[in-house]
Amino acid sequence: MEIRPTTDQDLELFVDTVFAAFGRFRESPAEGDGLLWSAYEMDRNLFAVTADGRPVGTAGAYSFELTLPGGVLLPVTGVTAVGVLPSHRRRGVASAMMRHQLTALRARGEFLCVLLASEAPIYGRFGYGLATCTRQLTVPRHRAAFAVPRARGTADAPTAGPDTGTDTGSFTGSDSGSDGGSVEVLRRAECGEIMEEVYDRYRRAQPGAVSRPHRWWASGAGQPPVSRAPRYIAVHRDADGVPDGYASYSLGESDTLTVDETIATDDTVFTALARLVLGHDLVGRVVFKHFPPGHPLRWQLADFNAGQLGSDEDWLWVRLLDVPRALTARGWFTDGELVLDVDDPFLGEHGRYLLTVRDGRADCVPTDREPDLSLDVRDLGSVYLGGTAPSTLVRAGHIRAHHPGAVTVADALFRAERSPHCLHWF
């Protein structure tokens, strides 16, 4: 078996092999939808081929930026389209492709990569750690009344969302918000540039978010609202008329209004958009997909129990390829030092590093000092963005703390300014 890079001429064969690996057939995209593979970067993809040249496995890579704690923007590879034909599974094909890919990324000077896993148990053995989760929030429409804010100086808010008028076939309208801004309901085809600009502003300030390159928006690649599938887009504008948030939604046959994603530059904008969808007529329930962790919406409802959170699902996985470079790249919010003993069994590597943080910046160098924590590189990936506390993995039996104080220091050091969250599907 050989691992070889693909070219533009391999696109059709690459796509067919990916679909065969997942046991699916190509289907014509829905109305206005784009082809996912229109965003493939064929100069970065790989084939695993047999001696006679037949492809039996695929692995792809996208070029993104990842927002790290502290607002650091880092070029990162988004791994995708990893699949092996059923006839060649359990023969080490996936491992060979992953090892080849990681080696190639290092040769490019990269020290971090990410992916979304179709099957969660697979990628830990390749050194990826689960760094962010996602979940849904479901709110029955008849229980969606908002409470009156109790903080002094907070303007009283209405107890129901504004009437959007979206039951009218060709409606485009707006409504003033209690935050001094306004919300306008548009169709997906009318506001692609607005969404692209607002998302880019949002992702630059959100740890764990990845960029959406222009070619994704231009080709409609991926899932709504990046794709051009019919959607209503509630666009929020600030008091000066500048767009600063949007919610993409559709109403299904079961009277369920599904919000694909809510992008907001602050909680006030999110609340204004939530009021709109929760106040929509002819709706039995509203489902917010990818509900941000720690968001106060449930507390803003008159009935806290009206908002039902679904179970956590794994989302963004992080893989460190160079521990010192990765740790010195992100921002830090507490001074301190730790000695980390890091094992990387997939690449057959081991290192011990002294991490020293002062005034928001880190230094990380090899050391022979006794370790404070011993951990697998996958566990370092899980805590890297601040979404998982090291103490959680100590309690789970994955990280070994060599003395009690190490856990306290690690939790304080690895926290982020806000919970990491990733919305982009790739």
Automatic annotation (TrEMBL):
* Compositionally biased region (Low complexity): 154-177
Is Transferase set as a keyword in this record?
Answer: yes
**Amino-acid positions noted as binding acetyl-CoA in the UniProt annotation, renumbered to this chain:** V82, G83, V84, R90, R91, G92, V93, A94, S95, S118, E119
Which residue stretches belong to region Disordered?
150-183
Q: Report keywords, A-Z.
A: Acyltransferase, Transferase
- Alphabetical list of InterPro entries matching this protein: Acetyltransf_17 (IPR041380), Acetyltransferase_Eis (IPR051554), Acyl_CoA_acyltransferase (IPR016181), Eis_dom (IPR025559), GNAT_dom (IPR000182), NAcTrfase_Eis (IPR022902), SCP2_sterol-bd_dom_sf (IPR036527)
Residues at the active site: Y123 (proton donor), F426 (proton acceptor)
Q: Can you give the residue ranges of the N-acetyltransferase domain?
A: 1-149
Record flagged with keyword Acyltransferase: yes
Q: Pfam families attached here?
A: Acetyltransf_17 (PF17668), Acetyltransf_9 (PF13527), SCP2_2 (PF13530)
How does it associate, per the subunit comment? Homohexamer; trimer of dimers.
The record's family statement is: Belongs to the acetyltransferase Eis family.
Q: What is this protein called?
A: GNAT family N-acetyltransferase
Q: Which organism is it from?
A: Streptantibioticus silvisoli
